[in-house]
Amino acid sequence: MNDHEPVFKKSKWGTNRYVYNADNPIGLTLIIATSVLTIVMLLLMHNRAGPFAPPAPSPTWSPPPSQDPWPFPSTAP
Q1: What pLDDT score does 36 carry?
Q2: What is the 8-class DSSP label of residue 47?
Q3: Which parts of the chain span the membrane according to its record (predicted)?
Q4: Can you give the pTM of this predicted structure?
Q5: In 10 A of CB 24, how many CB atoms?
Q6: Cis amide prior to 71 (ω within 30 degrees)
Q7: 41: Cβ–Cβ under 8 A, 6 or more apart, which residues?
Q8: Band of pLDDT at residue 55, cut at 50, 70 and 90
Q9: Which of 31, 33, 47, 66 has the largest CB neighbor count within 10 A?
Q10: What Å distances lie between residue 54 and 19, 49, 51, 66, CA to CA?
Q11: How far lies 48's CA from each of 9, 31, 43, 52, 54, in Å?
Q12: 37 phi/psi in degrees, rounded to 5
């Protein structure tokens, strides 16, 4: 392993495309981190968890509890 390897190198598949260089320790770390992050995000999407969870159902509305009975009892005959 050469200590002067660049983190990115030109891809063999394109003219202006760069890829991580696995011969550089930082490039290898970026390859592993990107792979782990991609797998975790795919699992979260598959399980509909984390930021991909469906919104919680909103609670149904109910009137606030009151101390007075409704309707008020009649005091006049």
Answers
A1: 98
A2: H
A3: 26-45
A4: 0.66
A5: 20
A6: yes
A7: none
A8: very high
A9: 31
A10: 35, 8, 9, 35
A11: 36, 26, 8, 5, 7
A12: -60, -40
